Every structure is written in structure tokens, then in C-alpha cells.
Amino acid sequence: MTRAFLRATTGLAALAAFVPAAFAQTTLTIESWRNDDLSIWQEKIIPAFEAEHPDIKVTFAPSAPTEYNSALSAKLDAGSAGDLVACRPFDASLALFKKGQLADLTGLSGLENFSPIAKTAWSSDDGQQTFCVPMAAVLHGFMYNKAAFTELGVEPPTTEAEFFALLDKIKADGRYVPLAMGTKDQWEAATMGYQNIGPTYWKGEAGREALVAGTEKLTDPEWVKPYETLAKWADYMGEGYQAQTYPDSQNLFTLGRAAIYPAGSWEIATFEQQADFEIGAFKPPVLAAGDKCYISDHPDIALGLNAASKNADAAKTFLTWVASPEFAAIYGNEAPGFFPLNDKPVELTNALAKDIVSWRNDCERTIRSTYQILSRGTPNLENETWAESANVMNKTDTPAVAAEKLQKGLDSWYKPGQAN
Q1: How much of the chain is in helix, strand and coil states, percent to nearest 5?
Q2: Checking DSSP bridges between strand 132-145 and strand 294-305, what pairing results, if any?
Q3: Is 235 buried (19+), middle (13-18) or exposed (0-12) by CB count in 10 A?
Q4: Strand residue runs (E) in 165-282
Q5: Using alpha carbons only, what angle is made at residue 7 by residues 5 and 9, rounded to the nearest 5 degrees?
Q6: 288 and 313 in one domain?
Q7: What's the rounded Cα separation, in Å, for the pair 184 and 164?
Q8: Is the pLDDT of residue 8 over 60?
Q9: Which of 367, 353, 301 is CA-nearest to residue 122?
Q10: Beta-carbon neighbour count of residue 76 at 10 Å?
Q11: Per-residue DSSP letters for 139-192?
């Protein structure tokens, strides 16, 4: 080995010692339940970030939606979770923060782009600490096959009576399943069923806040009547709906075999890619013509930092970018139906997304009734609502029995008006 070679290699080693850490390669992993968005992250979102930050690589590694909460909890407990964590709103993520598994992001550059209301779903009860960067809200309503409606000579309903008259006409015609919904996975019975139409009965935020305060109970008429309506849906959901999974329902609709899909706005991208017909949407029907309409406009997803991440600085760089108007514009248009919570308005290009978000101009907005405060104990009201919504639609529980079970479970641990 020559002296010249030794001098050269020694010089390179010395130079490497002074290379700034920012230029060292870092890989971040994102945990999420949004497996439907894998291609959007891989082809649009991550490349946009990596173009600005070539020293940071990002991997999007989603789990199945129904398995995410338990899988994430197990990974966090075992120390094997990714650096960044998609955050459910309110109680589920607050519990992880209180366990010290989500880092405190208060003061993170970019959080000033969100209002206190936008941050509420991922902040401490006193609003002083924020532990996830808000990404988007989703709206609930109904999607429908425009070609089928034209073929049947029907129009989207505006009242409950018109809704059931429409279902009767579709069922009598026989060419389409009226409602693409199953109860096998349970959660959609609650999320796209009970939480979709329920605000119309309990008057949105007024009812939800009364439930938290204890001045209303789940056994009151305004909370039981949505279940009475859901029990009637079962007659229009097709043969074998009890064994029908969420993907089964999606396929039933996108293959053109069902006319209406009780939906969340998050379905837009997937449905428009898979369906060969134009999709329309209508808001939850009001009880009587002229009534105020109510919609579930739910803060749905945010991104937090695993407190045990060994790449915290790089992860915070990514989170600051997620808090930017640039990310909001990409996410709002590449994942239509996820409506950014960033203060700077995003110009949406997707026609169906624009139609759905316009409901905010006409209707009062609320969040899902079980998500804030009421699902912090055991039994968990959100999970119990999944089960009872499915039981009602399966007709194994009456609406009254389902409501009694839910209220009894809540009474066993929750003292009204107190944030447990």
C-alpha cells in the first residue's frame, strides 16, 4: 500500500467526519390505516417531499383499517412502530399521548397554519398541548350510480320519506341492490349508518354536547330513532348482507350491481378509479321538507411522532412539511374526499369532492358522537356502537335494546360532564 494512497484515504475519512448530519441518509416509516392511499403516497406525496429533502427517504407502510388500532398499540408497546404515526381523532390518540407514546409537538413549525378548532381532535383537553399535525376531515352522506338513476328514472332524495320511496322503487325494479352495505365488519354499520344519519335526529353538535354533559342519554328518542331507521335499511341491503364485508360492499357498488352506497367522502378516489359509471352524491335526507340539514364533518386523520423514534429530527422536518399549504394542496387533490384542515383554502379540482364539500354551506356540521370523551373508558363506546349498529341491522337486537346496552356500558364508567 503506497504512502500516497494512505494520505488520500486518510484525507477522505477526515473529510467524512465533517460532513453535516443533514446530508446523512435517513429513512422514515409511516404507520397508517389508509391502505387505499398507498399509491397516492408512493407516487405523489412522498416524491414531492423527497424532491425538497433528498437526504430523507420515506416509506408508507399501512395496515388494514380494522386492525390498525390494535396493531399500532402492539408495535408501540414492543418498540417496533414506525417513526411517524397516522393519528385517529380525539380519544384514541389522546390515550397514546398520555402513555408517552406520541411526542408533544407543541411549538412545531407549521402548526400556526391551523386554527385551535382544527387542532382540537389532537390536543389535550385544555388545548395547551398538540400531539399530531392535522391533515384532513371527511364528510358523510350517500353516493349513487348516476347511470342507474337515469335508467330507473329516479332522482336523489331530500327527505326521509323520499329516501324510502326511492329504495322501494329500486327494489321493486330488481336490477340493482338498493343499498350496498353489509354488517360483517361492523364498523361501517356505525360509521356510514348511525353516524351518517344520526345527527339529523339528535341535532348535530347540540345533541352530542348534551350527551357528553349527561342531559341526554342514548335511550332518549332522538338517539334511538336513528336505529329504528337503520333497522329498516336491512330490507334493502340484499341477500346475505350479514356476511358481507366492507370490501364486498365497495365491489358491489363499483361493479354496478348496487344503486346507492352509504358513504364517507374518503371513497372518492377508489370508487372513481374502479367504477365505469359516473358517481353522484346526496346529503343525509332531512326528516321533513324545509328542516335544517346536518352532516357529519369529522376531523379524521393527522400525523404524529412516535416518541421512541430514533429519527426525531428528520420526522419533525417531515411533519413541518405536512403542516404546509403545499402538502394540503397535494393531499386535498390527490386524495379527493379528504378535506384539508390547513387554514389556507385549497382549490379542489375533483367535481365529486367539490359537490360534497359544498354541503358545508347549507348544513350544520358535527363530529361523530362517540369520539370525544365518551370512548375513554371500558367498555369503549365507539367499539360498542359498531357492534350494536350491526346487531340492529341484523335484527338480533331491537333499537331499544341496543340503546339500553350502550347507555348501560357508558354509565358503568362515565360520570356526565367529566372528562375521564
Answers
A1: 50, 15, 35
A2: antiparallel
A3: middle
A4: 177-179, 258-264, 279-282
A5: 65
A6: no
A7: 23
A8: no
A9: 301
A10: 21
A11: EEEEEEEHHHHHHHT----SBHHHHHHHHHHHHHH-SSEEE---STTSHHIIII
Q: What are phi and psi of 24, to 5 degrees?
A: -75, 145
Residue pair 93/33 in contact (Cβ under 8 Å)? The answer is no
| Strand pairing report for 294-305 and 26-32 | unpaired
* Chain centroid, CA 377 distance in Å: 21
**Vertex 63: Cα angle to 60 and 69 (nearest 5):** 120
Write down the pTM of the prediction: 0.88
- The pLDDT assigned to 24 comes to 61
Distance, CA of 377 to CA of 392 (rounded, Å): 23
Cell, residue 144: 349513487
Q: How many CB atoms lie within 10 A of CB 357?
A: 20
> Would 250 be classed as within a structural domain?
yes
The CA-based angle 366-349-295, given to 5 degrees, is: 15
DSSP 369: T
Q: Which three cell numbers stand for residue 311?
A: 429519527
For residues 244 and 183, the answer to whether their CB atoms sit within 8 Å is: yes
167 and 50 co-located in one domain: no
pLDDT at residue 20 in the model: 42
Query: What is the number of structural domains in the chain?
Result: 2
The grid coordinates of residue 41 equal 403516497
pLDDT of amino acid 65: 87
**97: phi > 0 → left, psi -120 to 50 → alpha, else beta; which?**
alpha
The answer as to whether 220 is a domain residue is yes
Among 58-62, 66-70, 112-116, 286-290, where is mean pLDDT lowest? 66-70
Q: Are residues 318 and 198 in the same domain?
A: no
pLDDT at position 2 is 41
Q: Tell me whether residue 111 is in a domain.
A: yes
Q: Residue 383: which domain range?
A: 139-297+360-411
Number of CB atoms found within 10 A of residue 147's CB: 16
Q: Do 111 and 67 share a domain, yes or no?
A: yes
248 and 203, same structural domain? yes
| 241 and 278 housed in the same domain | yes
Scanning the structure block, which residue is given the C-alpha cell 370523551? 373
Mapped onto helix, strand or coil, the DSSP state of residue 2 is coil
Q: Shortest CA distance to 316 belongs to which of 110, 76, 72, 54?
A: 110
Q: Which grid coordinates are listed for 104?
A: 408533544
Q: How far from 327 is each of 34, 117, 348, CA to CA, in Å?
A: 17, 20, 13
